[in-house]
């Protein structure tokens, strides 16, 4: 009798009992347990998790292995070593070791540490004791829950303290939390079943109270109306991207390191909508890429995007990745409303030129006033008449404004000169 085939365990972490959820959704879980990591059946054993390395960051730009992430780990003394980690290994880092994250100029995580962070955040967001799904939206989850996760889970495992990086991480957790809720509802809810039957389909690790409140929220008329609108909007997106789980920021960094130059948004759109063999995902993607290339030659890249795709949506920028808003990318919040970055640049140049011209006019006015004063002094104390070829003093006065005008008679000789015998005698002889 043939022996039954023995399947390898797909879970690399020891399963634990689901944490007990205290009464009230605002309570914070005291800890997060590792989430089982599904691995291929024939995957070999994982190598040692830490490997000494004398040159941190001296790694290729592409991922070294799809079985683990090669990252830098810092101990409590500040010493950095290279480590090969899977997401479950992050939970069991010993000796106060923390994973060093690498960020680009836009505040997005890159390289393999960024990939490991994204996978880890997915596990954290799926832990219902951290972020209960019974809340209607991410902003309603108490700040105490988020601060607990940030201080006791994220900062405990990753070397990160920057506020802008915290904003990215919390935004990523919110997106993954929303996606996780949507996935749960799609997989478990059956509209053909009764309320009681759907309530019985609650996942084992999820408190029934959370599941009941979540179902109640999804059954509301307002929620269903919003869901239908989202389904319609999603159906209009016929051009799927091909990067998989790799973020646009990581892909762009990889391409820039390999080519030695900055990659444009148009290039990133083409790369993220082509297959491995270089073919387009569909005809619409090919048409959009060709239009984008043509428009980029006629105007700026940002104007080309507006022409091909329309206005940018508030809070995000196309083909840049998560965590980047229009004001951060273009330097003006008005761009999110549809004004192009080229218009913003032209307006900035116009304002700068106008300010420069204003200062120049003020300097000219001051110089004209000084010349007028000097000329008036000379005419008053030296006497004589102005050459016919020289503009009248009144004309010179008109070039500047505020000073009171002077007439030709104001520059007549003083009365003391009229009693000078020599001047009187010479005047009589001329008569």
TrEMBL record:
Composition skew (Polar residues), residue ranges: 386-395
Membrane-spanning ranges: none
Domain of life of the organism encoding this protein: Eukaryota
Region (Disordered), start-end ranges: 1-61, 386-431
Biased composition (Basic residues): 1-10
Biased composition (Basic and acidic residues): 420-431
InterPro entries: Probable_transposase_24 (IPR004252)
UniProt protein name: Transposase Tnp1/En/Spm-like domain-containing protein
Native organism taxonomy: Eukaryota, Viridiplantae, Streptophyta, Embryophyta, Tracheophyta
């Amino acid at each position: 009798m043939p022996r039954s085939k023995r399947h390898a365990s797909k879970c690399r972490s020891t399963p634990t009992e689901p944490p007990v959820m205290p009464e009230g959704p605002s309570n914070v879980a005291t800890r997060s347990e590792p989430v089982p990591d599904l691995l291929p059946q024939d995957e070999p054993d994982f190598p040692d998790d830490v490997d000494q390395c004398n040159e941190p960051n001296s790694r290729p730009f592409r991922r070294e292995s799809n079985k683990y992430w090669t990252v830098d780990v810092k101990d409590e003394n500040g010493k950095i070593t290279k480590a090969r980690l899977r997401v479950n290994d992050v939970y069991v880092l010993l000796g106060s070791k923390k994973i060093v994250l690498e960020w680009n100029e836009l505040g997005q995580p890159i390289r393999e540490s960024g990939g490991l962070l994204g996978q880890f955040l997915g596990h954290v967001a799926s832990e219902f004791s951290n972020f209960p799904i019974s809340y209607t939206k991410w902003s309603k989850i108490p700040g105490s829950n988020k601060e607990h996760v940030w201080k006791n889970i994220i900062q405990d495992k990753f070397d990160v303290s920057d506020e802008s990086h915290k904003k990215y991480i919390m935004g990523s957790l919110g997106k993954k939390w929303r996606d996780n809720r949507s996935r749960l509802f799609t997989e478990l809810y059956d509209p053909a079943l009764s309320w009681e039957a759907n309530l019985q389909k609650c996942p084992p690790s999820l408190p029934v109270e959370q599941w009941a409140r979540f179902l109640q929220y999804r059954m509301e008329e307002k929620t269903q109306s919003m869901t239908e609108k989202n389904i319609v909007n999603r159906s209009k997106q016929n051009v799927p991207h091909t990067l998989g789980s790799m973020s646009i920021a990581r892909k762009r960094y990889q391409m820039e390191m390999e080519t030695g130059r900055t990659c444009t948004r148009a290039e990133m759109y083409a790369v993220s909508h082509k297959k491995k063999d270089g073919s387009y995902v569909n005809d619409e993607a090919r048409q959009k890429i060709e239009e984008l290339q043509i428009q980029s030659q006629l105007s700026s890249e940002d104007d080309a995007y507006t022409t091909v795709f329309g206005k940018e949506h508030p809070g995000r920028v196309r083909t840049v990745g998560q965590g980047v808003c229009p004001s951060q990318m273009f330097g003006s919040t008005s761009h999110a409303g549809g004004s192009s970055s080229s218009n913003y640049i032209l307006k900035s140049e116009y304002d700068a030129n106008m300010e420069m011209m204003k200062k120049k006019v003020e300097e000219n006015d001051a110089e004209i006033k000084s010349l007028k004063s000097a000329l008036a002094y000379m005419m008053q104390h030296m006497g004589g008449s102005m050459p016919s070829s020289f503009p009248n003093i009144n004309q010179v006065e008109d070039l500047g404004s505020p000073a009171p005008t002077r007439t030709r008679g104001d520059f007549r000789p003083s009365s003391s000169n009229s009693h000078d015998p020599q001047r009187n005698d010479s005047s009589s002889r001329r008569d």
